[in-house]
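Progress note, project year one: complex with zinc ion.
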Amino acid sequence: MGGGVDLHTHTTASDGTLAPRDLVREAVRRGVRVLAVTDHDSTDGLPEALAEARAHPPLEIVPGLEINCDVASGPDGAATEIHVLGYCVDWEAAWFQEFLREQRAERRARVVRIAARLAELGMPIDADEVFALVQEGSAGRPHVARVMMARGYVKSVREAFDRYLRAGGPAHVPRRRLTPAEAVAVIRRARGVPVLAHPALAGRDELIPELVRAGLQGIECFYPEHSAAQTAHYRALCRAHGLLETGGSDFHGPRTGRPNPPGSPAVPLAVWDALKERALLCRA
Ligand code: AMP
Ligand code: ZN
Ligand code: FE
Ligand code: FE
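Model obtained:
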């Protein structure tokens, strides 16, 4: 092991189940040397992750975040979501933190709307139960799913998504926030590097050119749920458009129904060198 790169992970600052300190320890145990912490609409896990990393040289922490966006409908009329990762942003800037606070406020308002929808479907939940799980963090559907499980409406988080919460599902309530192009633009405004997350999950490649015009710098090619063919397809797309090929585990903690530990799938160390170079260009 050693030399591992993982550019996509979550902590208790959003819907991960490990505190930043414990995520860092787990990553180190798995041989990760470059770890991006990319919580949803929050950078609140970064100070603790950076502090813990100082005890594990030569581990490097890449400051990041993930912004989830809803897209109304595709050619087939299907609702879908596009996730945008941002790396090396000026995360301490006051305006950017204010932006993240607004994002999180809409996340909480959305939980209330989802709870109302679930009540209509005969599965009442209390939004306050969801917020109790979230504490200071960024609320999301995984927290809703955990409450649904506790109430016995579903047996797993995955079942909650598959049957109710997925984009276009009966309890899906879209966010009232940014378009994917606006998410890309806000990351550029914060002098960061915007990357399209796990594109095969959305399967909406026709949206990519607009994102590139908005300033997109890369595509997450190496991802647990990407097939070898999908990885190859997005790597070719990156080469054709001069985009970075990035990757990561999207680890949310043990026993969260996600198969991959930190550092898996393998991401070439050259990806990190290329990202650092882009980060410098995006700051210039
Ligand atoms: P939200 O933050 O409300 O947009 O919820 C998105 C998060 O839900 C993702 O980042 C994943 O952590 C999780 N998620 C999405 N789809 C599924 C699924 N099918 N099964 C389990 N978790 C999922
Ligand atoms: Zn998540
Ligand atoms: Fe995502
Ligand atoms: Fe993620």
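The two ends are 35 Å apart (CA to CA).
The CA atoms of residues 69 and 82 lie 5 Å apart.
No further modelling is planned for this target in the current period.
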